């Protein structure tokens, strides 16, 4: 976890740290004595943004349920949703909420926004400390990423960063080469905030040509290797050697942090669908003190399973992920934002709809 996310999260509590140290059946440590009547195995796939959190949830869950097994393969949001629809996996992770047609194709779906993390706009600028935070409004950020601002010395950037010695370098935008929920999150923000500067709409596929990287690690690696670059990545995956953009308006630029992302989440609307089985956030980009570029990633499950043991393990696993213990553990391991108690209560009601 990056230092910036650690500082924002603050002290989660000694009890959670003890849980982190104890859990992990695959870590070579003895089980902590957890036991239950739960038996069976389930498989998941989907958003790679959740991978570290899923690892924390799986290890903690299996440590407490010694006869149960959970596996999560990643592979991307679209692949996860496709595999869930085909019956190839029992649950999925998706950085994009399902639409009504997808939900109907699954015969009913439980959808829970359980992984929340800021998306950092990362840059490599020689001479600037990583804590300096180059500031951009939503419109200027859109113009940079769209390629209409091409120099770090552009007057629009200089005016927003008085006192910062921006280098005289061309801007190279680095985007994801794969279809990505992270790309969708960023383009959602750009199209909502600056539609004239960003006329390309919202998409999981980056709409422009240029330098790219495969997955989060590819973008981070490319930006790290080339001065003048700017890219985007889940904040928990950003090394301390790279700078991050502070986003907002003059007088209210907000640096990327889990704390500021939590402000966005708390001011946003939670929308229910299908009688409370589907929970999705409609993000508020304008809350004071909020970092607006926030990834909300979902855990998806069927409402109905042919096998009773599978249904029971899916219910129990999702319940663990949404619990205070599961959320604190994921925050420690992945740097994500623990979801609020109000969501945890509504998620419990949605999970109760899962049945054989």
Automatic annotation (TrEMBL):
Residues 39-324 form the PBP domain. It comes from the Bacteria. Residues 1-21 form the signal peptide. Keywords: Phosphate transport, Signal, Transport. The keyword Cell cycle does not apply. Pfam families: PBP_like_2. Belongs to the PstS family. This is Phosphate-binding protein. The gene is pstS.
